[in-house]
Amino acid sequence: MIELTEAARTTAGIVALTVVAIESGGYFLVRVGTGKVPVTEFQRGFYRAGHAHAGVLVTLGLVCLLLGEATTLDGYARWLAQTGVLVAAVVMPAGFFLSALGRGRERPSPWVALLPVGAVVLAAGVATLGIGLLTAS
Questions:
Q1: In a domain, 20, yes or no
Q2: Which parts of the chain span the membrane according to its record (predicted)?
Q3: Model pTM?
Q4: What is the pLDDT of residues 30-47, one digit of tens each?
Q5: 1 part of a folded domain
Q6: For residue 10, how many other CB atoms are within 10 A of its CB?
Q7: Is 106 exposed, middle or buried (CB count within 10 Å of its CB: 0-12, 13-18, 19+)?
Q8: Which of 52, 91, 110, 134 is the most buried (most CB within 10 A)?
Q9: What's the number of domains the chain is made of?
Q10: Residue 96 lies in a domain
Q11: Could you please report the per-residue DSSP string of 13-82?
Q12: 29: domain range?
């Protein structure tokens, strides 16, 4: 059984509470889907992608937090392995939602630049975790 550090337990508790915010995003999508919130097809797609990325990445982030406890990584590498996906779970959905804001928007705003930033953090986090797991003694 993996024993969680105090930091990992606190982070997991905070992240678990963010599911309420993701739920509210789901409610917003229901309103979009039922026509109560008028959006363009571009916006509908980006809002759906933002919501999906938030849910999947928070779930994966919690798994990475737990698995990071089974490594011998320390310092920045440990932080990246355990929280990189969780950072991406904020940055990527923000890129989808913020770049689609605005009445009648048909193309992403400059906020779309958050997507590749989040993707880099995501890749760095999972790669660091994978290496940490493979090299753990």
A1: yes
A2: 12-30, 50-67, 79-101, 113-136
A3: 0.91
A4: 999 999 999 999 999 999
A5: no
A6: 11
A7: exposed
A8: 91
A9: 1
A10: yes
A11: HHHHHHHHHHHHHHHHHHHHHTTSS---HHHHHHHHHHHHHHHHHHHHHHHHHHHHTTS---HHHHHHHH
A12: 6-135
